[in-house]
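Need tokens for this chain, all 115 residues.
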Amino acid sequence: MSKPMNVERGLELSVLITVLGAVLLFLGISDALDWVIDLRGWGFYTGAIGVISLIVGVIWAISIVQRMRRFDVLIEEKSKAVFVRNLDDIEYTAWRLPSKYDVRLDEKKRKMGVK
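Here are the structure tokens for all 115 residues:
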């Protein structure tokens, strides 16, 4: 079963939302200061949407990168006892990451002899 798009392409989507938020924020500021574009009174709303998008995109990207780093730390365990003890955390972390992390987990399980 394939994972949802927001899991498979989460990092790319978060970067896209961050860039879109930065552009909208710039347009809102540009309208407020009469620099480049005139949005006819919609600059405040454009800037507000930009700020919200920027915050959401950055937080989403940070959370994905933290999950990736946590998975890398957990999967590099050499001891089978510690690996089995942390298996629930590793599986949950892999479940919240793209499919390639499931493949890495399956390889590590096979290497450790865990079902």
